Amino acid sequence: MFFVFDVETVPDFQFIRNVVSEPDLDEDELLVLASEELARNASGFLPPMYHRMISWVGLWVENGGKPLKKIGWHGEDEKEGLNELFDALLTYKDFGLIHHNGRGFDLPLITYRAMKHNLQMPVRLNHYDIRYRFSKVNIDLMDEFSNYGASSYPKLKHLGQLIGVPFKQTAEGNEVLKMYREEKLEEIEHYCYEDVMATYVVWLQMKYTVGDITKEVYENLNERAIGKLKEIQADSD
């Protein structure tokens, strides 16, 4: 069983103020300073330690690719959201994970925030099957397509364009913060759901490409997945 998931976040301004040199700046100026002092990348996007979770969406799928159940959460109470995520992950004992840059962002973030709220994560998340760099049950599409960093890392949106599937991604980067400030938490979860379905579609294509599933199975699952993705996108218009 696999859990395809994505997490949406905003900067943890309270924590950021504790660690930067000028904590009394307004939020937008604080982000500029934090990107200079804390970011390790040219984009200025802050590392996972400096974010807090406001939404997550997960899709349970069978090993052969058949989707079973979508679940999600959005809200201000991050501790509640983490508890709901951990409860969801306890549904199955030996689950795997599928994501895009989950190793680099989502999974470290979940660990940091669990520590902040003094919560215990499902033991499975620290199991060798999940932690092993080349795990076959913790599938990061960025690793899969870049050959674990030997090549460049692909954007999810570009993977969609490559296979002819439009991933609209109605909110990217700082747009999530803008939506959060406008109290559009339901819309943020909806965007998160689109990302999860996009990840699932790319994973299906990859499984077919490398010969893990037959053409018949792929075409059946992919047709339904594309239909669901279009339905999600239509709902956001």
From TrEMBL:
It comes from Rhodohalobacter sulfatireducens. The lineage of its organism: Bacteria, Pseudomonadati, Balneolota, Balneolia, Balneolales. Residues 44-229 form the Predicted 3'-5' exonuclease PolB-like domain. Pfam families: DNA_pol_B_exo2 (PF10108). This is Ribonuclease H-like domain-containing protein.
